[in-house]
Amino acid sequence: MEKLKWHTETRTINELIPYPENPRQMTEKQKNDLEQSLLRFNLMSIPVINTDNTIISGHQRMKILQILGRGDEEIDVRVPNRKLNDEELREANLRENKNLGSWDWDELANFDIEVLLDVGFTREELIEDFGINDIENMIIDEDRIEIITVLPPEAPRLKERQIFYCNDIEEYEKVKEYFKTEKNGYLNREKLLELINND
Q1: Do you know which Gene3D superfamilies this protein is assigned to (predicted)?
Q2: 6-98 has which CATH code?
């Protein structure tokens, strides 16, 4: 059997045929994230197809582009030098959708959390893979614990900051929800003063 070689050709999106045995599924969130990616950066990685236009990888991208009304648009596709048989097609489909590698979480720590959430990471994923779940087991130097810091108004008044350290992620979420304001990261002073006055 001739060794497979791949080259780039063009097809319209509507010419491409979904592989009926494609097992890959996406959640609603993943679909929304992919749509945002296509709207923002267009088609960065091109679909892979068989010689009869059956999609090997790229099903969800093609589906979303059709929904966006771009079905008649001509795009680049990767095509083999010979038609893949059924067994090759099935394996290639699985490999293209599964062999995605893993993340270097030390490198990801250099990215802003909001950017990571925006591109599709979930809070649960970040909590687990950044090791935040282990925070409760850390040995903490008591001298480093600071419950709240309030800076007095000084002239000129440049900034006011409050810091509240939480024992676990659930406590953090409760405090964040209670004190949240329109400006992200700013503590709701009225609620804090209300709590103090009620004591």
Answers
A1: Conserved hypothetical protein from pyrococcus furiosus pfu- 392566-001, ParB domain
A2: 3.90.1530.10
